[in-house]
Structures are given as structure tokens and as C-alpha cells.
Amino acid sequence: MANLIFMGTSNFACRTLAALEQANYKPKLIITRTDSISGRHRQPSMPPVKKWAAARGLPVWQPININSRESIAKLRSLAPDLFVVVAYGKILSKEVLSLPALGAINVHASLLPDLRGAAPVEWAIMLGYTETGVTTMFMDEGVDTGDIILQQATAIGAEENSGQLRERLAAMAQQLLPETINLVLQGKAPRRPQPPVCPQYAPVLDRAIERLDWTLPAQALANKVRALAPKPGSFCEFRGKRLKIFRAAAVSGSALSGRAVLQGKRLLVGTGEGLLELAEVQPEGKKISIVRDFINGYHIQEEEVFL
């Protein structure tokens, strides 16, 4: 049996690990990122992959620096045949990538070469894409630039948010990854070089991008709301406090940017082009609610200002 080493961190990576388990491709070692510190009481929090492995009694290693001399020595001692890397969150050096006899493969949640980077699911929705997919590839020193092995495309639903899309892409990856490993182990994996130019990058999402700018077109704002739902969520300010918006839609009409328009139990906000109809919101310190409850609870007035 091939000596596989898996590197991953997120729930997406857990889904692919489950597929490897089902296909009888059991990793000799699972590598994930170090525990993070989170919550009000600053408690250690294990990465999802560590929890998944611990529940099955599988060996886990959490190196601070996967590219250090010590890490490389340990990896070399394991004589790996193949690295399988899924949402690990660390860039592997040339020396690390050279260790496995059959190379290193990666799963990426886009149709490469488009949307290289850390947040391809969110950016696909935010940029208004109607299609995306999953790619498996051989890894090289670049970021998502290696030779493509397999790809599978899927349409993005008009109301689909990033959480829903990520779940579907994870299910696709569960099918594509075992097939890819099988091809690599048989020496039959295709290698399609990527062009050097990436049509659109998908960089890490910073906190600043979460704020809605009401001077933008309503469709761009609706895309952002979907892209950032369910986490971290987009937001604006209302009556001096933060208001998160988890579901919204672009509709025709016009009003001053950031001004409320009431149509019965519908709440719309003026934008740079069209109106944004709010459907699901969360006032600061409150639970998520449908917009009808928000209107009634806060007695929203016509032309109130959203900042």
C-alpha cells in the first residue's frame, strides 16, 4: 500500500479525508496547523482535521514550520510516496515538495487557472461568477500553479451562499480526489500545464471587505452578502450600531444611497444602481431575524439611513 501523508486544516479537508478513508487510502500521518486561541476566555481550539483524526485514533503532527530543517528531516524519514494537500493553509517549499517519490497533489475549489488563492469560493460568488468547480493538480513552488490532473465544473445557484457552495464543492472533491490518487499511483495521471496568467486571483478576505458600500450597484452588494454568508457576514451601520446582513437580493428601483424604502413588510435600501432588498439581518447583540421582525421590532421609518 502506498505511503500517503495528508496535510489539511479545514472542514473541507475533513470531507476529503473521509473520502480517502472510504477508498482505503489511509494516510500514514495527518499534518495540520497548530491549535489556535479563540473565544472570550482565550482557550485553545483544535483545527477540524485534528478533531477528525483524533476521533479515529490516527497520528497527527502539528509543526510550527513545515519547511524547517527539523520538519524536512522528519518527513524524509517517513519515506513518503505521495503528499495529499487540501486546504492546509501553508506554502510548501521546493525541498518539501521534492520529498515524496510520486510528488504532491492538491485539491483547489475553483477551475484553475482562474481564482488561484486562499478564498476561491467567496470570490467566485462576490465577482458574480455563474460557474466554478474543483481542480486536482500536481503541486509546484507557486500558489495553485501546478499541472492540472482532473477538473469538474458546477453552476453556481443564483441565491447560493458560500457555505452552501463550499458544501457542494466538498462533495465533488470527495469523488475527484480518490480518482486522482488512483491515477497517480498507477502512473496514469494526466498533466496539463497551466498558463502563467491567472484571470482573477482570490486573495485572503480581510475584515475591511465585510463592510457594505451603498454607493455600489445593488447586484454587487447582493453578491457580497451571499459570498460572506454564513461567515463572517457582511455588515453596515444602522442607528449607530453594526447590522449584519446574511440574505439580500438586488431589485429594480432607485433611492438615495443608504436610504430605506418601505414597501409593506419589505425593506429595501438605495444603492448606486438599483435597490437592495434585505431578507435576513442581525442587529448588534441580537439574534438573526427575518426582515419583517426587524421592521416591527425597530419601527423602521421611510428614508432612515444605513451607513
Name the descriptors.
307 residues, alpha/beta, Rossmann fold, Methionyl-tRNA Fmet Formyltransferase, Chain A, domain 2, 2 domains, seven-stranded mixed β-sheet, six-stranded antiparallel β-sheet, 8 helices, 25% strand, elongated
Describe, in short, the structure shown.
This protein has 307 residues and is of the alpha/beta class. It has helices at residues 11-22, 48-55, 69-77, 94-97, 120-126, 162-185, 218-227, 291-298, and strands at 4-8, 29-31, 36-38, 43-45, 60-61, 82-86, 104-108, 131-138, 148-155, 234-238, 241-251, 260-263, 266-270, 275-283, 289-290.
Write the layout of secondary structure elements.
Elements (H helix, E strand, L loop, with lengths): L3 E5 L2 H12 L6 E3 L4 E3 L4 E3 L2 H8 L4 E2 L7 H9 L4 E5 L7 H4 L6 E5 L11 H7 L4 E8 L9 E8 L6 H24 L32 H10 L6 E5 L2 E11 L8 E4 L2 E5 L4 E9 L5 E2 H8 L9
Parallel strand pairs: 1-2, 1-6, 2-5, 6-7
Antiparallel strand pairs: 3-4, 7-8, 8-9, 10-11, 11-14, 12-13, 13-14, 14-15
Helix pairs in contact: 1-6, 5-7
CATH secondary-structure class of the largest domain: Alpha Beta
Strand order of the largest sheet: 5-2-1-6-7-8-9
Order of helices and strands: EHEEEHEHEHEHEEHHEEEEEEH
Superfamily (CATH H level) name of the largest domain: Formyl transferase, N-terminal domain
Question: How many discrete structural domains?
Answer: 2
* Range of helix content: 25-40%
Euclidean distance between termini CA atoms: 59 Å
Count of helical regions:
8
Mean pLDDT: 95
Give the percentage of residues in beta strands: 25-35%
Oligomer: single chain
> Radius of gyration over alpha carbons?
22 Å
Q: From the 3D coordinates, which CATH architecture of the largest domain would you assign?
A: 3-Layer(aba) Sandwich
- How does the overall form come out from the CA principal axes? elongated
Tell me about the largest β-sheet: 7 strands, mixed
Low-confidence stretches: none
Structural class: alpha/beta
* CATH topology group of the largest domain: Rossmann fold
Number of beta strands: 15
